[in-house]
Structure prediction request, 197 residues.
Amino acid sequence: MSEFGILDFAGGTVVHINAGVAGLVAAIVVGKRNGFPTTHMPPHNLGLTVVGASMLWVGWFGINAGSELAADGVAGKAMAVTQLAAAALSWMFCEWIRHGKPSVLGLASGAVGGLVAITPACGSVGPMGAIVLGLVAGAGCFFAATSLKRVFGYDDSLDVFGVHAVGGIIGALGVGILCATQFGGAGFGDGNEGIGD
Prediction:
């Protein structure tokens, strides 16, 4: 894809969009769980959810920074923007507005959504670009995992489509808008100047 000018530093497009769409297809083929959507189905163990999300978060540094295949400034920048883009707060505020309170599951899902979105962009965006991408991804993934799922009626119990496919699409499009080379090294991209510079 790079031969066509597509920027995807750590494989967010080829991994997350494909996995998210595959998850949606699998959910449609397998069908809905008994009782969905009328029966409340809370997660079984939120403690394990947080442990799993934390392990993913730490592992994501290795994936994103390790895609540079060197211990240099690009790898360090990829690691820093990965941390900044984790969109737990964006999801949390959307959930707070919609449901009146945030949830631990929402925080974990939001963090993963931001990590998904930064994956293709982590070699190209600076700190401000990562923050913007994380905020957009958190809100977009929340919308997809809640409202979009209800509108179309599919039972994606782990929100693979809402978090991975939608987060991957936001990241794939966002890298073209927010990357440093797009703005000649200024603005959202490099993090050395203000947003309006």
Q: What stands out?
A: DSSP finds seven helices and no strands in the chain.
